[in-house]
């Protein structure tokens, strides 16, 4: 886990593409917020392995959002339940319910629906925000950090040697 | 394409290839082992599977050579399923549901001997419900056939145990007679014997010859008489006791002999009641005609029905998803669906087998668990023969709702062949060749309570009575006139222990010819039994003749002793008393007259003296 975090820092401090880190974090958000044993998560996991996203970031954000999801599950449940019980949407849900494909996706599960909708809606803004943050971090914050005496001292420590030995 | 991670793609390809290899080489073996393990656990005895083949389109299994051992008889297989085809829904497997679109089990065989004795998972002290039912059914069949065997047995076998009351009464009477004789003998020993009577006679003779001429003689005589009476008084008491003993003994003997006289009547009544000529007796013949095989088939059907019941109960309730979810678990919301899939669903199932030389098919539809409490009935159909030309068709509807179950089975059969059979009836062998029968009926099981009525109509029959038993002529005459008859089988009681009663109109059909013949035969049989019975009673009562004679001898002796004592002692003493009373009176009158004469004489003398 420490290695994964160090890898994130190394990626942040290297020339790894900001979109790679941003999409990895966004994908980790989806798989973390929604119930693990869902078909869509298998697709997200597959995409994470097939696309050149930063895997360490993906796993760390998966873990991070899993913890957040534990706190948000009651709200996701309420959201999903209100949507599924919404009269105006009943025809939509009923038509989806007729097909095995949608049932396999567990669209009619309150937490799955609530958390997936939140994650999908947040996906692009979150990815864009992550990319902007990384770019700004590299442009302004990184030089300032490197000049700090504490960082200079850390660079001489064994931890930094470990950090250096990690491939980004 | 720089956004593609080629190493990941290669990894995916390798992972997929490994999955395919595993599927190709191992899945069939794993499925086979899984089926054998789960089947053995569910069956309670070894389940073997020869091979399993997975097919992807359509998704399903082909299972060959399934052998289901009989847990109650490990040397045999309860069922052998050579070919099983299962067609599944892949999408429903992803939903955690098992939906079997089609299940075909063909050429099923039952009760087949195994090459090796089956392994049992673990010894269980408690028998399974099915085994208990099978045992109960076997016991029922045994008691049933025992009951039938009781009808009109040979006379000699009836007599063996039919004289119990008479035998007991004779034994009791013998005891009473012997006891009475002993009591009388003891009482006789206390009364005066011949020598004592001779002494009394001598004393009485002496008193009778005594001359009484004066009052002094009279007083002396009276004194001697009183001494004699005093000596006789204890003997009088002994004689009185003897009279009482004899009287009581005679009464006791009379009662005992009365019982002996009545006992054969009671025994005879028992014989007639045990072997009556009534409707029930005639119906036993109808029961015999159905044969033991029918009861064994019914027993087998109940066995499998009870095997299936727990599984139906398991698929009945599946409301877990409707319960309020725990925190973070969420909840499934269901919507209207023309065909909502349950956790378990079998759309159609077909089991085919050959029995009695006929092809049989068992078809089931719509066995499913439920998610919303709306329970769909399960339909099943058991067919004997080819479709649209079936010899027997049983339609079943199994309904589960609100905690109660109602299973309805409707039977329709035509041209149902019953094989010819030989039946032993009261020592005669009866060969029955029935024409094809028609079967109709309905059986309803409501929460395990059975109610049913099945009618088997035999439109034409041929009976041949073989052998030389007592009832050969009787049966031959009667059955020659029988053409068509019905047998009704009524079911009631619990499914686990059904009560089966059989009635028939065969007695009506037979009545014109059978009853008279049967009565004659019955009377002849009864006369035979009566003759033997009377001989038996005569033999038994003969044993009382000796004790009765002995008692009569003692009674005569007692009476003789009593008479002798009364005549020779009591009567004569009484005569002596009468005699001395008369003598006393005579002496008193004589003394009175003498006193009067003397007084007159004295008065005359005194008058003469006064004159002078």
UniProtKB/TrEMBL annotation, chain A:
Keyword Cytoplasm (UniProt): no
Superkingdom of source: Bacteria
Record field: transmembrane: 19-37, 44-72, 111-130
Keywords: Membrane, Transmembrane, Transmembrane helix
Pfam families found in the cross-reference section: DUF2062 (PF09835)
All residue ranges annotated as the DUF2062 domain in the record: 16-138
NCBIfam families: TIGR03546 family protein (TIGR03546)
Name of this chain's protein: Uncharacterized protein (TIGR03546 family)
UniProtKB/TrEMBL annotation, chain B:
The keyword Transmembrane helix belongs to this UniProt entry's keyword annotation: yes
Spans through the membrane: 7-31
Residues forming coiled coils: 566-604
Source superkingdom: Bacteria
Key words of the record: Coiled coil, Membrane, Transmembrane, Transmembrane helix
InterPro entries found in the cross-reference section: CHP03545
Name of the protein this chain belongs to: Uncharacterized protein (TIGR03545 family)
């Amino acid at each position: 886990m420490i290695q994964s975090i160090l890898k994130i820092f190394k990626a942040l401090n290297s020339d790894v593409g900001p979109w790679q880190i941003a999409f990895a974090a966004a994908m980790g958000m989806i798989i973390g917020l929604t119930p693990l044993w869902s078909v869509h998560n298998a697709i997200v996991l597959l995409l994470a392995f097939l696309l050149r996203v930063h895997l360490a970031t993906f796993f760390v954000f998966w873990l991070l959002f899993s913890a957040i999801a534990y706190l948000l599950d009651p709200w996701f449940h309420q959201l999903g339940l209100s949507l599924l019980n919404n009269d105006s949407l009943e025809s939509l849900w009923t038509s989806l319910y007729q097909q095995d494909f949608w049932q396999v996706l567990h669209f009619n599960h309150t937490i799955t629906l609530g958390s997936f909708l939140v994650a999908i809606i947040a996906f692009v803004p979150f990815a864009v925000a992550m990319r902007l943050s990384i770019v700004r971090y590299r442009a302004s914050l990184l030089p300032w950090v490197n000049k700090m005496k504490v960082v200079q001292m850390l660079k001489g420590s064994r931890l930094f040697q470990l950090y250096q030995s990690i491939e980004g | 394409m720089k956004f593609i991670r080629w190493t990941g793609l290669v990894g995916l390809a390798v992972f997929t290839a490994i999955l395919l290899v595993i599927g190709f080489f191992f899945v069939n073996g794993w499925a086979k082992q899984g089926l054998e393990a789960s089947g053995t656990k569910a069956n309670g005895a070894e389940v073997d599977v020869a091979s399993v083949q997975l097919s992807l389109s359509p998704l399903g299994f082909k299972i060959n050579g399934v052998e289901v051992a009989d847990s109650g008889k490990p040397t045999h297989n309860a069922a052998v399923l050579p070919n099983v085809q299962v067609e599944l829904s892949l999408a429903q497997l992803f939903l955690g549901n098992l939906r079997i679109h089609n299940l075909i089990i063909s050429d099923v065989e039952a009760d087949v001997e195994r090459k090796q004795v089956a392994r049992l998972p673990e010894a269980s002290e408690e028998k399974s419900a099915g085994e208990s039912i099978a045992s109960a059914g076997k016991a029922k069949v045994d008691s049933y056939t025992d009951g039938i065997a009781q009808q009109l047995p040979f006379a000699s076998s009836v007599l063996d145990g039919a004289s119990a009351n008479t035998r007991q009464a004779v034994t009791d009477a013998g005891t009473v007679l012997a006891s009475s004789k002993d009591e009388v003998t003891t009482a006789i020993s206390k009364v005066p014997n011949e020598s004592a009577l001779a002494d009394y006679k001598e004393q009485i003779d002496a008193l009778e010859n005594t001359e009484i001429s004066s009052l002094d003689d009279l007083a002396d005589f009276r004194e001697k008489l009183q001494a004699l009476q005093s000596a006789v008084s204890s003997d009088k008491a002994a004689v009185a006791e003897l009279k009482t003993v004899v009287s009581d003994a005679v009464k006791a003997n009379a009662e005992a002999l009365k019982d002996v006289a009545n006992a054969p009547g009671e025994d005879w009544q028992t014989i007639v009641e045990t072997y009556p000529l009534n409707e029930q007796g005639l119906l036993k013949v109808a029961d015999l005609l159905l044969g033991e095989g029918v009861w064994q088939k019914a027993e087998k059907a109940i066995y499998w029905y009870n095997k299936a019941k727990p599984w139906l109960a398991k698929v009945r309730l599946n409301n877990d998803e409707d319960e309020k979810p725990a925190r973070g678990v969420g909840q499934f919301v269901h919507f209207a669906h023309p065909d909502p899939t349950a956790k378990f669903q079998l759309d159609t199932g077909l089991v085919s087998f050959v029995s009695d030389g006929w092809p049989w098919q068992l078809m089931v539809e719509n066995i499913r668990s439920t998610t919303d409490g709306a329970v769909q009935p399960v339909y099943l159909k058991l067919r004997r023969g080819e479709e649209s030309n079936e010899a027997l068709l049983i339609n079943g509807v199994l309904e589960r709702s609100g905690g109660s179950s109602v299973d309805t089975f409707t039977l329709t059969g035509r041209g149902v062949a019953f094989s010819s059979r030989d039946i032993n009836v009261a020592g005669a062998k009866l060969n029955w060749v029935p024409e094809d029968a028609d079967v109709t009926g309905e059986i309803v099981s409501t929460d395990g309570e059975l109610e049913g009525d099945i009618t088997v109509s035999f439109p034409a029959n041929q009976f041949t009575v073989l052998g030389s038993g007592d009832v050969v002529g009787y049966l031959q005459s009667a059955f020659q006139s029988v053409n068509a008859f019905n047998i009704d089988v009524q079911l009631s009681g619990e499914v686990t222990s059904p009560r089966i009663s059989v009635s028939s109109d065969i007695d009506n059909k037979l009545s014109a010819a059978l009853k008279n013949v049967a009565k004659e035969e019955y009377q002849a049989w009864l006369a035979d039994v009566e003759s033997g019975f009377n001989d038996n009673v005569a033999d038994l009562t003969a044993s009382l003749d000796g004790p009765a004679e002995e008692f009569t001898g003692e009674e005569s002796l007692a009476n003789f002793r009593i008479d002798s004592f009364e005549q020779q002692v009591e009567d004569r003493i009484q005569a002596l008393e009468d005699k001395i009373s008369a003598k006393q009176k005579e002496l008193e009158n004589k003394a009175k007259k003498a006193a009067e004469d003397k007084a007159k004489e004295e008065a005359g003398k005194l008058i003469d003296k006064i004159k002078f």
